Amino acid sequence: MLRPSIFGDDLFDDWFAFPDLRDLDRTERKLYGRHADRMMKTDVHEHDDHYEVDIDLPGFKKEEIGLELKDGYLVVSANKGIDKDEKDKKGKLIRQERYNGSMQRSFYVGENITEEDIKASFKHGVLNLSLPKKEKEKLPEKKQILIEG
């Protein structure tokens, strides 16, 4: 049977399906609206002696990004704000789609990594981190003690 292309493959399933409750959560997020979950996209590349981490932070300046190492976790935070004086210089704001606010993401890097080990650079909206591979300190091997007698 031919049917118009506006219907999907499962016409009646679409009509009688249980509603998707995920659509009810349409709350606006402060930074980049409903699309904030797509921000801070990260690629991690493993090399023989280190890891390279690339984090997308479009629209941020280097001064708005913070890195902190705490209890084996590397915390990357980005805070973006719009100055009210800047709005006045540009004229009356009619529509605003860019939001101000903050976001943060953390990565477990291990207890042996220090701040001096991490190399960071920010260029063209991409934060590049280089993290060395450090092995845990090895415990001495268990050796049996011979009992004489």
Description:
The protein has 149 residues and is mainly β. It has a domain at 33-132: Sandwich (Immunoglobulin-like). It is 9% helix and 31% strand. The chain contains two helices and seven strands. The strands form two sheets. It has a four-stranded antiparallel beta sheet with strand order 1-2-7-6, with no helix packed on it. Mean pLDDT is 76; it is low at 25-31.
Count of alpha and pi helical runs: 2
Major sheet: 4 strands, antiparallel
Strand content: 25-35%
Q: Please name the CATH topology of the domain at 33-132.
A: Immunoglobulin-like
Helix content: under 10%
Q: Structural class, judged by helices and strands?
A: mainly beta
What is the averaged pLDDT score?
Answer: 76
Radius of gyration, in Å, reads: 25 Å
The helix-strand sequence is HEEEEHEEE
| Order of strands across the main sheet | 1-2-7-6
Distance between the termini: 93 Å
Form type: elongated
CATH class group of the domain at 33-132: Mainly Beta
Query: Which residues form runs of ≥5 with pLDDT under 50?
Result: 25-31
CATH architecture of the domain at 33-132: Sandwich
